[in-house]
Amino acid sequence: MPGGDLDDGVLRRLDGNDGPAVTYRRQGDDSVLVEYGDLVLDLALRARVHALHTALAELAPAGVLDLTPGIRSLQVHVDPQVLPVRRLLGLLVELEATLPRTADLVVPSRTVRLPLSWDDPATREAIERYMAGVRDDAPWCPWNIEFIRRVNGLGSVDDVYRTVFDAEYLVLGLGDVYLGAPVATPLDPRHRLVTTKYNPARTWTAENSVGIGGAYLCIYGMEGPGGYQFVGRTTQVWRTHPEPGEDPWLLRFFDRIRWYPVSAEELLDLRADLAAGRTGLDVADGSFSLAAHERFLAENAGSIAAFRARQAAAFAAERRAWEEAGSSPAPSRRRPPGRSRPPRWSCRRAVRGWTRRSWRTCGRWRSPWATWSRRGRRWWRSRP
Prior knowledge:
- The protein has 384 residues and is an alpha+beta fold.
- The relative contact order is 0.11.
- Strand 8 and strand 9 form a beta hairpin.
- It has helices at residues 43-59, 85-98, 121-133, 144-152, 157-166, 264-275, 290-299, 301-325; strands at 10-14, 22-27, 31-36, 64-69, 73-78, 106-108, 111-118, 169-174, 182-186, 202-205, 209-213, 216-219, 224-226, 229-233, 256-262, 282-284, 287-289, 370-373, 378-381.
């Protein structure tokens, strides 16, 4: 339904001629979100975002406070007293006309070699904690790598290992959740392992664990919760104490990550050396050409389509197996071992269709229009 200004949040749309279609969306009073193309994983869209980001950063118009690129979008945050949103919109439209054709885009792209401790003990500990305190009946338990194998139709966990280490992961975003954590995807679609995420999420993940969620790979920048399926652990991606002029994040947009295997003990030594400044990243400069990448896709279209078909069939078979076994990627309502019984008054059903009992949180599924009655210990609707 359109908002009060009758624009439904959309300030303007441009049909793509030499590039993808563009949508300019209002974000509050001080930001515009520029979206390219459809909601799909397309490296051409990310390259287009990078071109606009670079052009706007070089122009450096007064009033622009922050630029935040996404996979297919760029958020432009301004001081509306200096650069009103309507004037910013005109500037963005003018700038779009000056960008090169998407197929001609070439961006700097370093190759970064990182160590990976496969199936690291820290990831095993996180899974054990999850099973003990959150959920023990999830399809990805007790071993995430076996789950990744099943849902991608691979013959063995060794195939998962080979796929991860053969892949070249292109960094599409930084700060995925926190602290410079990269979100990356393999350049070769035949290396794009796809998974579901934990549901509910883990309450603990070791710093710099490496996991896959959806079609993306992430390195966790710090210890905390998480939901990606583990494959291992690596070194730090964030400088705690950067030198003057240094960025605290170690990776850059369009870096290409290549993994090399190390043992868990070797990884601990490498982490200590990096933290102490005795070593740095193994980096080689280069570039990423969208035209060359699209030629690669065209030359391997048949095998890419076959891989995707096998992957889709395996995921569908996994879902059928969940249904036949009575399990689900969604959490069970049964209490985990050792959990005390909820109080008898917890969230009793009062009106058909809007609340359920839950051992987790009273009223977890309540209606947004429900209110609590202490006297009756029930949720009641406050509006029809």
